[in-house]
Amino acid sequence: MAWTRDQMAARAAKELQDGFYVNLGIGIPTLVANHIAPGISVQLQSENGMLGMGPFPFEGEEDADLINAGKQTITMLPTTSFFSSADSFAMIRGGHIDLSILGAMEVAANGDLANWMIPGKMVKGMGGAMDLVAGVKRVVVVMEHVAKDKTGAVQPKLIAKCSLPLTGQGVVGLVITDLGVFRPLRGESPVFEVLELADGVTLEEVRAATGTDIVVSPALAVDA
Predict the structure, then answer these.
(1) DSSP string spanning 96-142?
(2) Which of 46, 76, 97, 194 could form a disulfide with 136 if both were Cys (CB 3.0 to 4.6 A apart)?
């Protein structure tokens, strides 16, 4: 068993706090907008110049002029405002965004993040990733725990050292995957601390799917 993409997004939504300004990356992070708890007021910010995004629209209610940075149709709220991309990045670079929830290709145990390109593959560009990880107060990564290469072989995405071009060094504060919740522990010998396990997932499965050492949080009531 493991968490679905929706369950991963729901877990990520628990990191939101009342009054937060939050940026959601492309992919699984966009689903977080559908799991904001009642009573929690957050403002979702998009690099293309929108503050106060609502959840995804129902089928048939899409407005092609209302899109997020990933070109997905979204909805407005009474608090929604629009502005230039320059103003949007001024918010990000000025440290006014409390939390960014992003996807990733690799995360290292020291918190390094690689999420924008694979050498040899066509990419549209960096986008806002580097600005986000450098300017926001906290970065949470939501991603599948492993990837498959061209041969179908499984490749860990939580590893000792990133092999892909970095988006940022030591920027990741928390990682949520389909197997659980992990925190990079920086130090002389960086490791991932296991904070939570997904339903039905064992530590043995996590160890087998992780490309570096893990330690178990004292708050996690399982056998190490």
Answers:
(1) ---EEEE--SEEETTS-EE-S--TTS-----TTHHHHHHHSS-EEEE
(2) 97
